[in-house]
Write a structure and sequence with these properties.
Blueprint: E1 11-13, E2 19-21, H1 33-41, H2 44-47
Amino acid sequence: MAGEGLSSKEKVADDNEKVRSRAGMVILRANSVEHAREIAAKEPMHVAGARTFQVRPWLMNDG
């Protein structure tokens, strides 16, 4: 079943009552991992406690 293994905060039912994951990904440019955490912590859904986040460093290759 879609959404298995997700906590109730990570599940949402669509109009057809199918469970969908609310998980997503945002890529942003920051000066450091801590700077990225500061930016994410100010996002309104995170401030309201409706979502949580994890910051994962990503190395961008130029070219």
